[in-house]
Amino acid sequence: MIATLDSYSQVAIYSAMAVYVLSFIMFTLDLAKRSASKGELVGSRRRPFERIAFALVILGWALHVAGAVFRGFAQGFVPWANMFEFSLTSSAIVVGVFIFIQFWQNLKFVGAVVTAFALISLGVGTTNYYVPVKPLPPALDSYWLIIHVFVAALGTAFFVIGAALAFVQLLQARRESGKKSLTLLKTLPDAVRLENHSYFVNVVGFVFWTFTLIAGSIWAERAWGRYWGWDTKEVWTFIIWVIYAGYIHARATRGWRGARSAWLAIIGFSSVMFNYTVVNLFFKGLHSYSGL
Amino acid sequence: MRTALFLLLLLAIAAVPGSLVPQRSADPNGVVQYFEDNPDLAPILDTVQAFDVYTSVWFSSIYLLLFLSLIGCVIPRTMHHMKALRTKPPRTPARLDRLSGYTSIEATETDAATAVESARALLRRSGYRVRTFEGARAAGAPGDLSVSAERGYLRETGNLVFHTALIGVLASVGIGGGFSYNGQKVVVEGQPFVNVLNDYSSFNPGRFFDERVMPPYRLVLDDFRVVYERANFNAYGFPIDFTADVTVHIPGEKSYQDQVKVNHPLHVLGSDTFLLGNGYAPRITVTDADGNVAFTDSVPFLPQDANLTSLGVIKVPDALPEQIGMIGFFYPTAEALETGALTSTFPDLRDPVLSLNVYTGDLGIDDGVPRSVYSLDTDGMTQVAGGHAEADAIQLRPGEAVELPGGIGTVTFEDASDPTSGNSPTSGQADSVPRFASFDIHHDPSQGWVLFFAVASVLGLLTSLFIPRRRVWIKAVERAEGGIRLEYAGLARGDDPGLEAAVASLAERHAQQLGLKLSQ
Ligand code: HEM
Question: What is the DSSP secondary structure assignment for residue B264, as one 8-state letter?
Fold first, then answer.
């Protein structure tokens, strides 16, 4: 039974990856077409590739979520208890946030980045970190694990999109300052709007991250008897939090709007990725739960 | 703001080294190891407090400076905000058409007073603080009436709550942490732990710790149970549950039974007991050359791998004529490797075997220097069994006894499930070796405060980030040709991407309320 459910999960994950590849190609074709256009802003009705790409993302996401849910049922616990499951679930949350954020603003132009991120997570997760279903170690058997890790993944999702927007903002600002640049940027919102979007998305991420920090402390208190001990993972969670607090301040500091704050968003995001890969795998600490 | 930003970024950078180099607080053994691996570099790093980053002078200065500047900014801002809360919205600007979301509507069906009164009611209902103004009426020029409105004072309140709560968190950690203590204790099944200072194996008091505050309760570890996975072959032998059954004795109260589990600490009289580790404590009796019982105790062996191959040390200082020391491995389920060496293949007791290397001579514990009970200094000793000695290492199963080489005594691996030993007999080997649990006992009166301030800071953060602060104006200008022109505009205070939409929606609702058609 466990093995059957786990194999359903794998089939769903591989199918999701196949669909994401197609979606990524469509998003890229859309960007290529934007480059070829003379740079006039066109509504989404006139963007067939983008529409197909988005439909594919939704399909891929449904498969992706199914993969995570099967995995969860296979082991009888939430599917985020080791590195493999965390890469599976957190990338599903990233794509989910990308889909739902479209109700707020049309940010489909970062679709290529988001699908690429999901593909890399799933690819590395399935090939390098896959572990068969195992019982949950007693140390992880806590509601706080469910909350803490889930909220961390949500925060990460917003940081991914926030960083992608900050990156486009930097390119856009370069173009606006008269430097030679990609034509496709003319079809995208201006740098100030991009900065505002990026700020909002990162701030939502920051709120989730603050939550992660607190839920993690409560869990650490339950499990180890101290809410804070400067364990490596705690150190990096703190560093990330402080960088984003800096980012928020940068917006209110003269001379730090624009490019500098965009760089801070990118540095913050890089630390999140560092925490999620290098710290999990190579640093020694109490949080060595990667299951490898 | 520039100082805050600078110090924040500096703090982030300063926190990095502590994750690259082991820290004394989180990983003391790692620090010892680091000194061994890098004998040249480590002392240099130590002089800049690289092994105590988070209590170092430089790290502390950064966050103290940050919090000083924080206090220096929160106080004046709080005063300013208190005043702002009592001030009325400012006078309507003369020209609204340069402000955000400017909209105007011509209306003939109504007059300025009615329109402005209805605008006032509408804005109040939408949570604005309002004030009406009558425009200066220059000779001959048309007059105007207007409402000036402001909302979102909560945004600043939230921001102040957030920043103040951060000060609260730091203060609780700093002051409350001084009254805390934590200690560790290894307890073998059947044995008690008493919450007094000298019963702890190790103890870390806070700065203001006072021994008299420790409540003198007693815990007895009745039973320690572990459940191992047996169904899933991918995880065979994986522990899935640890339970320590304890009896709690509080002076002057009826004693009661309770449990300590991983993630489920036991709360007794303001301190929490956590289950952090476990292992086996073989019960060993040693007699010396004269036939006297020189040692009998359960000795905790420290697990070395997932199948609980465990390492332990037995010191018999009372043996005559010479002291005896033993270093041993314990295998809960012993199996011989091809080389003949033993290993354990399952963490539960299926075929427990104890193997001992025996030394005689001076244990080196009479000179007053404290020595770890988990290590044996064999420098002043002669090996009599195992290793290079003539006799092989001693191997024992529960219930077995053996003579030590050279007639220096005997050693017995007691079967703890033997009815004569006081335990109830059970089937097989299951209870032949007692288990031990290692407990962490914590008392930290600051926790509640830290949590309170942390929650306050999140609430403040949410309020300050997501409540927009804005001003809007609705003005009714009398036109020379009769009728009025209604003007709407807003001003963002801080980031407010929703401002234009908000002004447009106000205009629409106001027009609807007055029964006007929206044709500009
Ligand atoms: C020198 C002391 C500080 C000053 C003068 C200061 C000032 C400010 C100001 C004016 C804002 C509002 C920015 C806006 O509305 O866009 C703000 C926001 C913020 N500050 Fe500070 N701050 C200080 C210290 C800190 C510290 C130590 C932290 C925490 C690590 C922090 C974290 C934040 C965060 C997360 C926000 C955004 C949330 C909010 O608006 O309340 N600040 N700060």
Answer: B
Quick check: B158 and B468 in contact, CB under 8 A?
Answer: no
Please provide the distance, in angstroms rounded to a whole number, between the alpha carbons at the two ends of chain B: 43
Whole-angstrom Cα distance, residue B346 to residue B435?
Answer: 15
The ipTM assigned to this model is 0.88
What was the pLDDT predicted at B89? 86
Which residues 6+ apart lie within 8 Å of B231 measured at CB? none
CA distance A243 to chain B (A): 6
Q: Which residue blocks in B367-492 are alpha helix, DSSP H?
A: 447-466
Instruction: Characterize A40-68 residue by residue with b for buried, 16 or more Cβ atoms within 10 angstroms of its Cβ, and e for exposed.
Output: eeeeeeebebbebbbebbebbbebbbbbb
Candidates B169, B242, B262, B268: best to mutate against A (most CBs of A within 10 A) is B262
* Three-class SS state of B184: strand
Residue B302 has pLDDT above 80, yes or no: yes
Number of Cβ within a 10 Å radius of residue B213: 12
Lowest mean pLDDT among A272-286, B15-29, B95-109, B147-161: A272-286
> Do B382 and B325 touch, CB atoms closer than 8 A?
no
* Structural domains of chain B, ranges and CATH numbers in brackets: 88-152+468-514 (3.30.160), 181-278+427-443 (2.60.98), 283-413 (no CATH)
Helix (H, G, I), strand (E, B) or coil at A107: coil
Residues from chain B that touch A223, judged by Cβ atoms under 8 A, are 262-263, 274
Q: pTM for the whole thing?
A: 0.84
Question: Does any CB of chain A come closer than 8 Å to the CB of residue B278?
Answer: no
Residue nearest to atom 14 of ligand 1 (CA): A252
With a 6 Å cutoff on the Cβ, whether B467 touches ligand 1 is no
Q: How far is the CA of A200 from the centre of ligand 1 (A)?
A: 16
Q: pLDDT per residue over B483-499, tens digit each?
A: 888 889 998 877 777 78
DSSP state of B203: E
* Tens-place pLDDT, residues A191-219: 888 998 999 999 999 999 999 999 999 88
Write down the pLDDT at residue A43.
Answer: 56
pLDDT at B393 over 80: yes
Return all residues near B117 (Cβ < 8 A) that are at least 6 apart: none
For residue B249, list its beta bridge partners: B218
Residue having the nearest C-alpha atom to atom 24 of ligand 1:
B70
How many Cβ atoms sit within 10 Å of the Cβ of residue A80? Answer: 25
% pLDDT > 70, chain B? 94
Q: CA distances (Å), B374 to each of A131, B322, B325, B327, in order? A: 35, 21, 12, 9
pLDDT of residue A38: 63
3-state secondary structure B395-425: EECCCCEEECHHHCEEEEEECCCCHHHCCCC
How far, in Å, CA of A33 to CA of A208, rounded?
36
| Atom 43 of ligand 1, nearest CA residue | A249
- pLDDT greater than 70 at residue A285: no
The domain ranges of chain A are: 137-292
**Predicted pLDDT of residue A284:** 62
Q: Judge: A251–B495 Cβ closer than 8 Å, yes or no.
A: yes
pLDDT tens figures, B281-290: 999 999 888 8
